[in-house]
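Notes for week 9. Today we move from apo structures to complexes. The key idea is that a small molecule is not decoration. When we ask for a structure prediction with adenosine-5'-diphosphate present, the ligand SMILES becomes part of the input, just like the chain. The input block below holds both the sequence and the ligand string. Read it once before you look at the output, and try to guess where the molecule might sit.
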Amino acid sequence: MNIKSSNLVTVKHRITVEERWKENKHKGGILWFTGLPGSGKSTLAIELESYLFQNGIHVYVLDGDNIRQGLSSDLGFSPADRTENIRRIGEVGTLFADAGFIVITAFISPYRKDRELARQVAGNFFNEIYIKADVTTCEKRDPKGHYQLARTGKIPEFTGVSAPYEQPNNPELIVDTNNQSVDKCKEHLINFIGTRFTH
Ligand SMILES: Nc1ncnc2c1ncn2[C@@H]1O[C@H](COP(=O)(O)OP(=O)(O)O)[C@@H](O)[C@H]1O
Ligand SMILES: [Mg+2]
């Protein structure tokens, strides 16, 4: 990591992460959703957030379009800007997880090396979840009309059309949204959370 400042002295928290888990009655961590535009990241993230919240879990969704209007408002979709966007989410997601939250990040995060960097930063908090659907299906769904705009050249550098998507090699979980309903996918995710975040 590149740190510009020198003479930094880390302040040590008096509250340990285990103490936060005990208080919350569940562990914290990151569910890092990755997948093509239209694969279902936002849909499943919001579904899951509602379910978990109703069940007393400390949970929060970080979603691509929202973050690009705030924290990452200075960034576009060039490879360097995508990398910086994901770097920031890796850091922010780790802070949320360290604070005891289950944080669901819903970003295309198309580059393997960027996701690997987020994994390095987050350590054990990190769970890569491949929201899997092929381009044909995603393009048919086209919930925001972006594929159509990308095909006609009105959106440049669009993942799946004119920019690459690198599939995860070894994700902690694959959620197949091509062949499964939203409810079924949600069920898979809830089961996964049960195995990983119980304290
Ligand atoms: N199993 C599924 N999981 C998630 N979304 C699905 C599924 N089946 C169909 N869809 C539809 O696909 C679209 C996914 O859009 P969205 O969640 O915005 O994708 P993303 O955030 O990945 O770009 C929505 O219109 C949703 O209703
Ligand atoms: Mg989305």
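Strands lie at 29-34, 59-63, 102-106, 126-132, 173-176.
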